[in-house]
Amino acid sequence: MGSLSHCNSPSLGWVVQKFGGTSVGKFPDKDIQIATDIVRASLSQNRVIVVCSARSTGKKAEGTTSRLLAVYGKLRGVGAAMCVDEEQQNELVEQARGLMLDICNDHVFAAEAYIQDPSIRGKLVQTIKDECQELVEYIVAAKRFNLEINSRAKDRVISFGEKLSCRFMAALLQDKGVESEYVDLCDSFHYDAGERLDDKFYRTASEAFTRKIAACESRVPVVTGFFGNVPGSLIDGDIGRGYTDLCAALCAVGVKAEELQVWKEVDGIFSADPSKVPTARLLSSITPSEAAELTFYGSEVIHHLTMDQVIRAEPPIPIRIKNVKNPRGNGTIVVPDRILSASHQLTRDSPKPQAEHKKPKRPTAVTIKDHISVINVHSNKRSISHGFFARVFSILDTYSISVDLISTSEVHVSMAIHSSSQQVEAFGKATKELAECGDVSVLNDMAILSLVGAEMKNMVGIAGRMFSTLGEHNVNLEMISQGMHDPRLG
């Protein structure tokens, strides 16, 4: 190990680097090393904040977060069995203990494999064991004292994934000669559980994170992507499993970073899925509205709340998506586009002669979202339509079903809905109630094909070319949707 000679220089601007769980798990010591080739190399140009997700060395289902969800399942079982069977409780506690032992062993193995300095390695191994033991003791206490098992308990369990990951990353950086400090945001601020996730909440969170980062002085902060306390729940509430991206964005806003870097295992955002379309090209830049559409309609780009925070910052902070396997690549940068106010009149450019175009206009990207069901509801009443639509959407709201695409006439509505496995029962009940509104038909195993591009509103004939191409390949269209300000045709 080299001496701790690399640190944040106060004269440089900030960059926030967010690493996903597989990056932390798979690239600590390969041809490309996160600690040296990315973080340490960046310190010559910027001050760096590192934000990490929970470690994973393979599929998401096998990652630390997924295993901690299984631990929470055992904890919830302990709570459910409180008044029933102590023997069953004990069995569930032992199962949870076994899962935690697997998680502990996995992180200890990584520490012993990648940390060269005996002192740093020894401290890390002991810290990992202590963190895992703390969670086991919490589960035992839940059984012994009949603790309430709620969404906050779930958040507490899940937070250990980011704690272990960031402990590992901080030690890895120190082992490579970088002055770093572990920063735990899991209890960084308190917010009234009854309050909503509004601008005040995000401002409070960002300010709390900034205070923690400032306390690190010249040391590189290694920040847990899991943060709290969030009204309701972090993972089960409005934010969900994209919370690490949002945490990185709030850190970037707080320190007024020059750039937010999201490191993945792909070179950036492509014009289509490269595994399905070999000719897909890497996009050098994309607007937030385009990125949001790609995320919603099937391409895993970046959490929508992340973009909201950095693009609305003053000044706006660009997001750059880069590849941990190709640190020198430029990646794809998400740059602010023009925000249309409510009073803004949208003006369309007049079609220009082809000779005046510097280059042919085309959509930015194409994306596909599978596992779609289309519900068609045709009203039996040829009367005022507003009551019909109100009833339809009231039923969907009752069962928490969101609509991806919609097409309407006065007495007919077609809705494309993502039929996830968790919604099968709710979907069936909603369909039965919709039958009270009129004739209902359902088409399963469909897909949404979307063209995405901020400039498509000015592309003459783009819809015709899309439909012609689909027709040439015998693809039948069930519904079409595009909004006035929408950078997407689906």
Molecular structure report:
By secondary structure, the chain is α/β, with parallel strands linked by helices. It has two domains: 321 residues, Carbamate kinase; 125 residues, VC0802-like. Helix content is 40%, strand content 16%. The protein is built from 13 helices and 13 strands. The strands form two sheets. Strands 3-4-2-1-5-7-8-6 form an eight-stranded mixed sheet, with helices on both faces. Strand 10 and strand 11 form a beta hairpin. Helix 4 packs parallel to helix 6 and helix 9 packs antiparallel against helix 10. It is globular, with a radius of gyration of 25 Å. About 5% of the residues have low confidence.
List the helices and strands and how they pair.
Elements: E1 14-19, H1 21-26, H2 34-42, E2 47-52, H3 64-80, H4 86-114, H5 118-144, H6 151-175, E3 180-183, H7 199-214, E4 220-224, H8 243-255, E5 259-264, E6 285-286, H9 288-296, H10 304-311, E7 319-323, E8 332-334, E9 365-379, H11 386-398, E10 405-408, E11 412-418, H12 424-434, E12 438-452, H13 462-472, E13 488-489
Parallel strand pairs: 1-2, 1-5, 2-4, 3-4, 5-7, 6-8
Antiparallel strand pairs: 7-8, 9-11, 9-12, 10-11, 12-13
